[in-house]
Amino acid sequence: MNKKLRIVIITMGLSCIVKPLVESQDEVVGIVECAPRNGVKAGLLREFLDFIKNIIKWHMNLKGYAKQKRIPYMLLDKNNHNNVSEMIKGLNPDLIVVFSMSQLLRENIFSIPRLGTINLHPSLLPAYRGPDPTIWQYADLMLHPGVTVHYIDEGEDTGDVLAQSVCEISLGEPLERYNQILQSHGVVLLRNVIAQLRAGKAKGKKQSRESSTPRSRLLKQGESRCFIQWKLWSVKRIWHILHGLNTHYDFLVPPKFTALGMSWRIGDWEECKENHIPEDIYIENGKRYIACKDGRIRLYMRFSLRKLLRNLRKLF
């Protein structure tokens, strides 16, 4: 039962699970990349901007990585589930491993492997089911989030749990560091589960159909501007969200020249009696602040290349 497993990976981009699985003792026989939500064919300018972004990040995309490793690759979109199903059947995998998908996997795919299909989810299920647990865990001031490896079934993150790991983050943890912490825990957890599956010792535990939290849905376009409840939430809670996520969401009224890449940088916070209306941005003694109900947060202006590229992408 300890023989090498044949694994198919389904993910988006060159995610944290790809290289560890390809370099493991098992054999990755196929890679399926899930197309982004509402994906559209890129125009020449958008392709150029993506090319520049990849140079800045200095990494290879998933398709190029699969080609380099001589692993069969296929893109999964909402119209070609049957084609992907046939491809995977031909690869005869023992296991499918999923992380970061933009859509629910259909039964004609997740039922193919003899050992089933497992998913790495960035929360402690059944809490924070859904496609975007991160922003909702920040909003709830969750400083002990976690990761879950579970079987995929017909529901959304409802399959039997194989393993979980609790993580610890700091107040205001930047999203990049937050992801690193959860992903490092997740990769270790995933390796352990695969070893148990290889040895025939893995046992899933049914999870409650009810969750203690609402579905972790994606924010709609423009919704981030009204996401923070300024009149209800404490300055500590708001600072945690802003310091962690502000470079990825437009929570605040944008500064001048935002189209040219100017954005807010979040400074320190303090509890104090605040005479300004919550969410008001004001200047005092030459310093810029945003008011909260029980304190204030220091703001700075800075140039952000990420912001500039994102604004250019919106135009094309």
UniProtKB/TrEMBL annotation:
Recorded GO CC terms: cytosol
Protein name in the entry: Methionyl-tRNA formyltransferase
GO MF annotation list: methionyl-tRNA formyltransferase activity
Record keyword Transferase present: yes
Entry coiled-coil feature ranges: none
Gene3D superfamilies given in the database record: 3.40.50.12230
Entry keywords, A to Z: Transferase
Domain Formyl transferase N-terminal as annotated: residue spans: 80-190
Organism: Anaerovibrio slackiae
InterPro entries in UniProt: Formyl_transf_N, Formyl_transf_N_sf
